[in-house]
Amino acid sequence: MSTFFRRLSKATPIAFSHAFRTQSQSSSSHFRFPVGAIAAISGGISYFYYFSEPNLVHLDQINEDTGPKTALIPDKWVEFKLQEKAKVSHNTHLYRFSFDPNLKLGLDVASCLITRAPLGEDAEGKTKYVVRPYTPISDPDSKGYFDLMIKIYPEGKMSQHFDKLNPGDVVEVKGPIEKIRYTPNMKKHIGMIAGGSGITPMLQVIEAILKNPDDNTKVSLIYANVSPDDILLKKKLDMLAASHPNLKVFYTVDSPSKYWVGGTGYISKDMASKGLPAPSDDTLILVCGPPGMMKHVSGGKAKDWTQGEVSGVLKELGYTEDMVYKF
């Protein structure tokens, strides 16, 4: 295993005792929901954990004048080879895929890619596929590789497929799928609410802001998880917050450990009021997490997958549709 994966594995908490912690029963004063129950789209982070490997496996050499300038092709499935994989937490793994080292992947902040895997055959003998979107956590400007952080679920068809992958195996990918086009200083203050692996698009935006010396955007993140052991890349987030005064991070967990010093329970109106920027034309709130959290905090998307109305905690605090974006 390379230095990159050893460092990253050590930089995140790992719990070996259980895959999922049973949720506590709800009480009249404490609403609970399974923050870690469903994977959200898997955001951009590079810093010193991320660097190019000298022995990348890549696609055939592409003619510089006539070939594509990015590895992703919007309307075509492309095979990417798995270079390495590593455990990040008790139920989450990191996967590095490689391609031509002269190319960028072809993602903007914040966008995602689409993966597919074969899932048997239909009645006519044609291959059936499971398709899922993920947000890479590697820097969009990186060349020759991209990294996915994926939570493995016992009944997750795509995550189970990823869990069985070994270095040298390939995954079919296409994209990008643009979510929200981030531009420097588009808002004075961005608030973020993430649950579980919904942290990934938030990391993509955070990384873009912090690496740009001309971007003065303030960022306030509320990150909810089942337990302290489920917090993905906590040490990385803590390090970024400690070294960048424009980033503030608040954690809350459903099942705190004995020495836990962060928040406890669901994301309440009080947490959001204290941890997010107040509603204004210069404010944007990004939300990404499992359906239960989304419903409670912001309301889910509409049936046609458009943004839909804002409800829940954010509506109670006065945020409007143009101030909230749901991944």
TrEMBL record:
Entry GO terms, CC: mitochondrion
Keywords, in A-Z order: FAD, Flavoprotein, Mitochondrion, NAD, Oxidoreductase
Reactions catalysed, as given in the entry: 2 Fe(III)-[cytochrome b5] + NADH = 2 Fe(II)-[cytochrome b5] + NAD(+) + H(+)
CDD domains documented for this protein: cyt_b5_reduct_like
SUPFAM superfamilies assigned: Ferredoxin reductase-like, C-terminal NADP-linked domain, Riboflavin synthase domain-like
FAD-binding FR-type domain residues: 75-183
Location within or outside the cell: Mitochondrion
Protein EC: 1.6.2.2
Cofactor (UniProt): FAD
GO molecular function annotations of the record: cytochrome-b5 reductase activity, acting on NAD(P)H; cytochrome-b5 reductase activity, acting on NADH
Residue sites binding FAD per the record: 132-134, 151, 157-159, 200
Gene3D superfamilies registered for this protein in UniProt: Nucleotide-binding domain of ferredoxin-NADP reductase (FNR) module (3.40.50.80), Translation factors (2.40.30.10)
Pfam families from the UniProt entry: FAD_binding_6, NAD_binding_1
Family: Belongs to the flavoprotein pyridine nucleotide cytochrome reductase family.
PANTHER family per the UniProt record, alphabetical: NADH-CYTOCHROME B5 REDUCTASE, NADH-CYTOCHROME B5 REDUCTASE 2
Protein name: NADH-cytochrome b5 reductase
Organism: Helianthus annuus (Common sunflower)
